[in-house]
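Aggregate trends can hide what the representation actually does to any particular protein. This step matters because it turns folding into a mapping between discrete strings. For completeness, the protein is quoted in full, as a sequence line and a line of structure tokens:
=====
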Amino acid sequence: MSRPPLRQAELPWPTAADVTAREAAGWVPSPLHSFVLKIHSRCDLACDYCYMYRSHDQSWRTQPRTMTDGTVDLAGTRIAEHLAAHGLREAGVVLHGGEPLLAGDATLARTARVLRAAVGDGIRLNLSLQTNGVRLTERRLDLCAEHGIRVGVSVDGGRAAQDRHRKGADGRGSHTRVREALRLLSEGPYRHLFAGLLCTVDLRNDPVRVYQDLLAHRPPSLDFLLPLGNWHTRPPGLTPGDGRTPYADWLWAVFERWYGAPVSETRIRLLDDLMALLLGATPATEALGLRPVRYAVVETDGALAQDDTLRTVYAGAAATGLDLRRHSFDTLLRHPGVAARQWGADALCADCLACPLHQVCGGGHYANRYRRDTGFANRSVYCADLTALITRVRGRLAADVGAVA
């Protein structure tokens, strides 16, 4: 298929004309299979690295605090419509925020009922919520169990790591409260609800200590997130071009501890996906590689948005001008910013295409590629770190495969 010019030197992402040209050349959008519903737009923590509240985009200030019943109903209708149109029998919905537990128990319960009723019995709907854990109690876990809602918790490690960033507005750390919530979630009757932990990497924390502190909660999966940044707003401790790869070094230490364990301790999404790609398999998620991105974000007011992380790029970067009332999810798929993330290698810059590792790293996270003059047609600001990590893991796997052979 011929590749229409993206003209990203002029615009942050392709134009509607680029999308039309690509469709004419045979591109067909991949349907969405995951939906992020922002059921509450505020939070009860004041994390100093938060992409929602501490970045360029402050549009959360104009969002209603809680998603209304009417918006939830319409979201259910639109999701069901999209799944039916594409013959999908399974989908995921993440109840998100802000902090979704601030929406209240009645809203959580009603949202789950509405979504399941909307898609019908023939669809496997995987419901989950992503929480900071502060308000996670036995009563709320009972509610989640009743409605089949799995729970993911964002946590940065032990007390020192957690309380450095994840504090309340009063400056009080959240470690003690979150530790108790994780005890409830990881032990006893609620264990089946435990979806996993998300941890943002902080170079000041010892990587193996962080991994072991998180492992103490017996999570079924972990994910380590690189701090959001780009070529203008650099991630902490990163100076591209200076020859150092601090984030690769940090993650490599985790890899060696995790991979070298005598028995499997947990899944680590980033590392599992990396190994799958290096071994020629299909990764479980779209965090790495070139698979089409297939999730959508619904704001509290029903607006359809791109990935939340684009808030770190510039004000309005995540906005599409579309909303549930007037537009379908198929319309969202044809928004230039959304479409570009389904084009795989065709949306990468020349430097990435010339690199033999681009099929593994996928060019890096979209938000990490941004430059004001060339939009997203750039290498990731983490390019050197991704290269170093992939090369080290590939070498370890090659040595092990060679030893077996």
User: Anything to note?
Assistant: The radius of gyration is 21 Å. Residues 383-404 form the longest helix (22 residues). Confidence is low (pLDDT under 50) at residues 1-11. The first strand starts at residue 34 and ends at 38.
